Each structure stands twice: as structure tokens, then as C-alpha cells.
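Sequence only, no structure available. Ideas?
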Amino acid sequence: MGKKVIIVEDNELNLKLFTDLLRAHQFEVTAKRDGRDIIETVQDVMPDLIIMDIQLPNISGLDLIETISANAQLSHIPILAVTAYAGKGDEERILTAGAKAYLSKPVSVMNFLEAVNQVSA
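Reply:
I predicted one. C-alpha cells follow.
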């Protein structure tokens, strides 16, 4: 099996698209619609990559990125932020929080796959 990826995305269509796309490219995918238990999931799965939406119900993806990046056991896992949250200064704030890369929605399939391959390399 390929690299392990956790996707945290509350939009059902985006979650399905990202999951299907990655599975078609031999990634082993764990999909989550909510970030509340994501730290435990990351510790259980120990993925090669986390794809994180920023606007999630109940908890901010930005807070999750900061928490994962501050955890000595998890900080080595690269995070790709994929979000419609694309105001002035947002990319810098997301990267400063610990994301390795940032894509704004809507994102093309090719750009998404390129970013996943670069970040998980």
C-alpha cells in the first residue's frame, strides 16, 4: 500500500473527491469530517501527510495545525492546508502555524495532486 494520508474536511463533496483521487493514486486514506478527535487519529495512524481544511465545525483547522506542530511526536508529519479561507495574510498565518503548504479552494485536480506529492515527498 502507498503512503498514509489523513484528510480533515467537513464538505462532503470535497472529502469524497480528495479521498477518491488519492486512493486512485495508491494512497491509503483516512477521512474525517470533524477535527475534534483528530489528534488521537493522527497518533493511531501516524500518516505520511495530513490534509487539513481550515474552516471546520467545532474546532479551527488552524488550531489543529498549531497543536500538531507543537507535539514532539507529531511535528514531523507534513500538513497541507486546503481551504477557501483565503483572505489577505491568511496563507502566511497558516504557514506560520506549521502547515508545510497551502492551497486555496477551488483547487484543480492537477494542482492538488502536485501539492500532495511535493509535501509528502
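The chain is about 40% helix and 20% strand.
Hope that gets you unstuck.
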